[in-house]
Design goal:
With 385 residues, the chain is α/β, with parallel strands linked by helices. The protein has helices spanning 7-22, 29-35, 42-57, 98-110, 128-141, 152-162, 166-176, 194-198, 204-216, 233-250, 276-289, 300-303, 305-311, 342-351; strands at residues 60-64, 66-69, 115-118, 146-149, 178-181, 220-227, 253-260, 295-296, 318-321, 355-358, 364-369, 372-378. It is built from 14 helices and twelve strands. The longest helix has 18 residues, at 233-250. Bound molecules: ligand V47.
């Protein structure tokens, strides 16, 4: 446990950080860790993060109309935090048929969704071609749906299965209809933590290489961080710095999403769920550290509606979407509803003092007329690469 700092020491360090934020200078690992100290007022950190949020996104707060698809829960890995996975012959194992997958596509399209967020397990028996087929049938039947599909962990699995390069696989998936990559599988990059919570799965370097390659072929991606389990502040800030470095190199990340750990039905159930104060502080520190990420997302499914709404004043500028059919967190104990209406999301944003803007996955403004919608001008993130 670090020794407690007195008020004068805290004030002096905060003054330096405030100055740096005003001058738009980059914060160091030590400064990020300092901002996590309980002696440093959360309001101060939130205020600073909000300054950056205002500078980068003004009064705008984004959301989208989306749906989730998890075509199988069968997974060769046994990540300790995961309540979703199943063994091949486990009682809850499932793999969706083409008809079930297409039915989800229809439901999404009928509901005016602009995005389908697709992730699954690494099935013991299914080949790479099945994952490619899922994309092909959805894109062919519902070409307007943006498919944000497969995490870096899945792409690394595809490389293992096919012995082909990331470049080949990602190019083929792009050709088939993948429009961008979600940010999952990042967990915590630091070597003291990663093997403890998700041994065997894609390493930090592999995760980075998948995203680097995706950016090189013009696919935008997101990045996440799973926090509030066995990691500490240094591990979190180190994780952010890894992402900041790759973003300096490629500019291909759109959004950072801190994911608050849910402890039910998994091998870390003895741990307590992170508090809303840690959630808000993590949001704010992310905004301050990731000066080259246009967006920080407060994923309401994980945070709960109240904390997600508050996070819009602690650095976040995006609430994710209406989200239909989310199961990964609900199986891990999330008590949030399964779907939010557009009216509800817009009201949450307005109450926080921001302007709700519907975006598509690539941050183009969506304009709707009756049942029809159209993506129009590019919003800030689309211009960074
Ligand atoms: O990598 C799994 C996390 C992630 C638990 O890109 C858990 O827009 C908390 O990446 N408690 C997948 N978290 C989800 C994901 C995501 C979510 C929302 C938006 C986007 C985006 C991406 O879910 C996994 C893991 O870190 N997770 N189990 C749990 N018990």
């Amino acid at each position: 446990m670090a020794e407690i700092l007195n008020k004068t020491e805290v004030e002096a360090q905060l003054r330096d950080i405030r100055q740096k934020v005003e001058n738009q200078e980059r914060l160091s690992l030590e400064e990020g860790v300092f901002l996590y100290r309980p002696e440093v007022s959360l309001h101060e950190v939130g205020e600073l993060a909000n300054q950056v949020r205002q500078r980068m996104n003004g009064k705008a707060a984004y959301y989208n109309v989306n749906t989730h698809l998890n075509p199988t829960n069968v997974c060769v890995y046994r990540c300790k935090f995961c309540a979703f996975r199943s063994d091949l012959r486990g009682p809850k194992a499932y793999t969706m048929s083409d008809e079930q997958i297409l039915q989800r596509g229809k439901e999404a399209d009928d509901a005016g969704a602009t995005e389908m967020h697709i992730v699954g397990g690494l099935h013991h028996k299914l080949k790479y071609d099945w994952y490619l087929h899922v994309i092909k049938i959805l894109k062919e039947r519902y070409p307007r749906l943006h498919l944000k599909a497969w995490t870096a962990v899945e792409y690394e699995w595809f490389r293992h299965l096919t012995k082909r390069s990331y470049h080949d696989i990602l190019s083929e998936m792009k050709e088939a209809g993948v429009g961008s990559l979600p940010g999952g599988g990042a967990e915590i990059f630091h070597p003291e933590i990663r093997p403890e919570i998700c041994d065997h799965k894609a390493t930090t370097e592999e995760w980075m290489n998948v995203h680097r390659t995706a950016h090189q072929i013009g696919l935008r991606t997101n990045a996440t961080m799973l926090y509030g389990h066995i990691e500490n502040a240094m591990h979190r800030v180190d994780h952010m710095i890894h992402l900041r470095k790759l973003q300096d190199e490629t500019g291909g990340f759109q959004t950072f999403i801190p994911l608050s750990f849910h402890p039910e039905n998994n091998k870390l159930s003895h741990l307590k769920k992170p508090s809303p104060l840690l959630d808000l502080r993590t949001m704010a520190v992310s905004r301050l550290m990731l000066d080259n990420f246009q967006h920080i997302k407060a994923y309401w499914i994980m945070l709960g509606i109240g904390t997600a709404q508050s996070a819009l004043n602690y650095g976040a500028d995006d609430l994710d979407g209406t989200v239909r059919h989310e199961i990964i967190y609900h199986e891990a104990g999330a008590k949030t509803p399964e779907v939010l209406s557009v009216e509800h999301i817009r009201r949450l944003i307005e109450e926080s003092g921001h302007k709700p803007i519907e975006r598509d996955t690539l941050y183009h403004k969506v304009v709707r007329e009756g049942d029809e919608w159209e993506a129009s001008e590019a919003l800030p993130a689309a211009s960074t690469a």
